[in-house]
Each structure stands twice: as structure tokens, then as C-alpha cells.
Design a protein that fits this description.
There is one protein chain. This protein has 112 residues and is an alpha+beta fold. It has a single domain, classed as Nucleotidyltransferase, domain 5 (2-Layer Sandwich). Helices cover 38% and strands 21% of the residues. A hairpin with a 4-residue loop joins strand 2 and strand 3. Helix 2 packs parallel to helix 3. The longest helix is centred in the middle third of the chain and has 17 residues. The radius of gyration is 14 Å and the shape is globular.
């Protein structure tokens, strides 16, 4: 029996999360793309807390919106005095919106 796309993405996500973990000095930058929005969060896995997060407006789901989210999350990270992060693409390919968000965050000063 074939696996669905969702099951395959969930398996990739579990494999990645087994290796990727964030701490307060170097939090995890988690990217989520839905059908309506693009969002990113800085997560401290050691404390089990979300430090900050940014979401695009409803209906703004394209590459331009993803790059704005990347710039905004980098600005919020600077406000929290965080310079380096661990990138978590959430099982998605490093392509399109995920890539645009990551490149915008790097351009705005985040290191990962």
C-alpha cells in the first residue's frame, strides 16, 4: 500500500526533529506553511517555550509573504538578542516559500 504525501512528510518531520533541538542561546526556527498563511516561530526546546513567532496575513501565502515573515522573525530575534538559530523546515522541501523565508532571515542577520 502506498503512503500518502502527508504520511511521508510526517516521517521526514520526525526524523528531522530527532536530530534538531533548540536552546535559549540557539533556538529552533520552525517554519509552517498552510494553505492560507506562512508562519515562523523561535522555540526553546529545553524550556518547552515559544520565544516569539510571526505569521503572514490571511490569504498572503506566496513567496513575497514568506520573505516578509523571514525578515520579521529576524528582527524579533535581534530584539531578543539571538543571533544564531537551528533551522527546522518541518519536513518540507527547502524550496519555494521555505527557501524564501530562510534567505530573507539570513539576509536580515540571522545565522544558521
Amino acid at each position: 500500500m502506498k503512503s500518502s504525501k502527508h504520511q511521508l512528510r510526517t516521517q521526514r518531520k520526525r526524523r528531522i526533529r530527532a536530530k534538531v533541538s533548540g536552546i535559549s542561546a540557539r533556538p529552533r526556527l520552525s517554519v509552517f506553511c498552510s494553505l492560507l498563511r506562512v508562519s515562523a516561530q523561535l522555540i526553546d526546546d529545553a524550556a518547552g517555550k515559544t520565544m516569539t513567532g510571526v505569521t503572514s496575513k490571511k490569504g498572503h501565502k506566496n513567496i513575497a509573504a514568506a520573505s516578509k515573515v523571514g525578515e520579521a522573525i529576524a528582527k524579533k530575534a535581534k530584539d531578543l538578542k539571538v543571533e544564531t538559530v537551528v533551522f527546522d523546515r518541518n519536513g518540507r522541501k527547502y524550496h519555494g516559500r521555505v527557501k524564501a523565508l530562510a534567505e530573507a532571515a539570513r539576509k536580515s542577520g540571522l545565522k544558521f
